[in-house]
Amino acid sequence: MKKVKYIANGGLAFFEEKEMKKLAEYAKEGWVLEKFAGLGYKLRKGEPQDIEYALDYQKGADDEYFAFFEAAGWSHVCSAGNEIHIFSAPTGTKPIYTDKPTTVEKYEREKKQMGKVALPFFISTVVFWLVGIFNDLGSVPESIAILFQVLGMISLIPLIFTGMPYLSYQWKLLKLRKG
């Protein structure tokens, strides 16, 4: 029988609650989260557990940070890049974020972080594409225009992986502030 299972991550920035519920369902079947693995999770077969998972973002988390969650009944499970942290607790444990202001603060931090990375890629993508457009007007040599079009396509990839989460956090913040 398999002892390890890898499952895909559907996108924490977009489906945080859904991802945590999915991991909790696997835990009920005895597949308990061990760590992040590439673009997904590594689960280990064990005893079925009735637990919940919660996600938090904290860059450069220290012992005091983890002790705070431990005191609230949440055990640290794993981290990605010492910035994204998953905790678990028995079902029914008081959630990590219980009020609107702290939840807003959580998403504001992440939006700001993603924005710092996404903005340079957005600007470079626009510039590269504009040079390509000016080629159609005959103002730029074709070899330079082709180079800039290729660079524009290349810069689009990291823009998607940073810009889409940025927009997701922005959307979550708008919903939190309205509701």
Q: How would you describe this structure to a colleague?
A:
- This protein is 56% helix and 21% strand.
- The chain has 179 residues and is an alpha+beta fold.
- The chain has two domains: 4-90, no CATH class; 100-178, no CATH class.
- It is elongated and about 65 Å long.
- The termini are far apart.
- The mean pLDDT is 90.
Features:
179 residues, 6 strands, three-stranded antiparallel beta sheet, alpha+beta
Number of strands: 6
Helix content: 55-70%
Tally of structural domains: 2
Specify the overall morphology.
Answer: elongated
Largest sheet, strands/sense/barrel: 3 strands, antiparallel
Summed up, the helix count is: 4
Computed structural class: alpha+beta
In N-to-C order, the SSE pattern is EHEEEHEEHH
How large is the radius of gyration?
Answer: 21 Å
* Rounded average pLDDT: 90
